[in-house]
Amino acid sequence: MSRNNEELAGCTLLGNQGTKYPTDYAPEVLETFENKHPDNDYVVTFTCPEFTSLCPKTGQPDFAKIIINYIPGRLMVESKSLKLYLFSFRNHGDFHEDCVNIIMKDLVKLMQPRYLEVIGLFTPRGGISIYPFASYADADHDELRRARMLAAFRNDF
User: Fold this and answer.
1) φ and ψ at 111, to 5 degrees?
2) Which residues are 136's β-sheet partners?
3) What is the spatial distance between Cα 82 and Cα 113, in angstroms, rounded to a whole number?
4) Does domain 27-141 correspond to CATH entry 3.90.650.10?
5) What is the pLDDT of residues 105-140, one digit of tens each?
6) CA–CA distances in Å: residue 103 to residues 70, 96, 108, 111
7) % of the chain beyond a pLDDT of 70
8) β-bridge mates for residue 48, sequence order
9) What was the pLDDT predicted at 101?
10) 156 is a catalytic site residue
11) Which residues are CB-neighbours of 17 under 8 A, at least 6 positions away?
């Protein structure tokens, strides 16, 4: 069962040859589409191995692999818009923990997923790696959130 044009109406970036890459933090580029399987709990994973942001104090670049796992509700995030959104952090000055929490909150606001987690695997700076983990769950998935939070303490991603 293919998607029709009406179902794809909110996906304006996908297939657009005139894509403009935002140079500043841009949550407004995020787009959604309807989940065709809202009765199923299933996991969608995005991996962004080339995430960059800036240190808010020094302005030096920080590099990370960002992993986003979510169980969709009614809406799903469109992947090209997510790519552009994550790219918009390139000139954004914030600490690692802030970036991960901002991403989590923006995606929760956008989609109202059943469960969502964002993991930031930042490369070492001064000999220390920072791996922030932020998660959200609706009432039916709070046990999963607690288990994943516990696993994060052991780095069992």
Assistant:
1) -110, -20
2) 116
3) 15
4) no
5) 999 999 999 999 999 999 998 899 999 999 999 999
6) 13, 11, 9, 12
7) 91
8) 66
9) 98
10) no
11) none
Q: Which of these is catalytic: 55, 94, 106, 138?
A: 55
d(CA 14, CA 30): 11
Active site residue 94: no
pLDDT digit string, tens, across residues 24-35: 999 999 999 999
For residue 1, give the amino acid letter. Answer: M
From CA 10, how far away is CA 130, in angstroms rounded?
A: 36
CA distances from 20 to 16, 67, 81, 87, 140 (A): 10, 24, 11, 11, 39
**C-alpha separations of 125 from 77, 85, 121, 122, 156 in Å:** 31, 24, 12, 8, 22
Distances, alpha carbon 77 to alpha carbons 4, 35, 119, 135, in Å: 17, 9, 17, 16
Predicted confidence (pLDDT) at residue 19 exceeds the cutoff of 90: no
Among the residues of 58-95, which ranges form H helices? Answer: 79-87
Say which amino acid occupies 138. Answer: D
Res 1 pLDDT > 70: no
Residue 156, C-beta contacts closer than 8 angstroms, at least 6 positions apart: none
Phi, psi of 7 (to 5 degrees): -70, -25
- Which pair of tokens denotes residue 8? 């794809």
How far is the CA of 48 from the CAs of 17, 31, 82, 98, in angstroms? 22, 17, 10, 17
